[in-house]
Specification:
7 helices, three-stranded antiparallel sheet, Arc Repressor Mutant, subunit A, 2 domains, mainly alpha, elongated
């Protein structure tokens, strides 16, 4: 069978890091999803640097599976995000804050990355 040719906008391609950023989780969570969820989109290609997905399919999957960023945004206000960032900057432990706010440590790290990039 000859190889299939598809046309896709390069901006709609992404790897584990891009999926993690969109979902607001750590890359290790994305790797876990690829092994644990039979309905997670199949990668388009596997390169030496890793798998590449159609991000449109991944976004559809994420809408059906409330994880990461969407969960954090529903639960925490902008003021809480800022408060968490300041508390970590002053030495409080991520684990303690995750328990206190009822979110994952990955959610706390996502908040920290957002503030560090700003």
């Amino acid at each position: 069978m000859p190889p299939q040719h598809i046309t896709i906008d390069p901006r709609d391609l992404g790897g584990v890091a891009e999926i993690a950023e969109v979902a607001g989780v750590l890359p290790s969570a994305v790797v876990n999803w690829t092994h644990r969820h039979n309905d997670f989109p199949r990668s388009l290609v596997i390169l030496r640097c890793g798998s590449v997905w159609d991000m449109r399919q991944v976004r559809r999957w994420l809408r059906k599976h409330p994880v990461g960023r969407s969960t954090v945004q529903k639960r925490l206000t902008r003021e809480q995000h800022e408060h968490i960032y300041l508390r970590v900057a002053n030495g409080e432990k991520v684990r303690k804050l995750a328990i206190e706010y009822g979110v994952s440590r990955a959610a706390i790290y996502y908040i920290l990355r957002r503030y560090e990039q700003a």
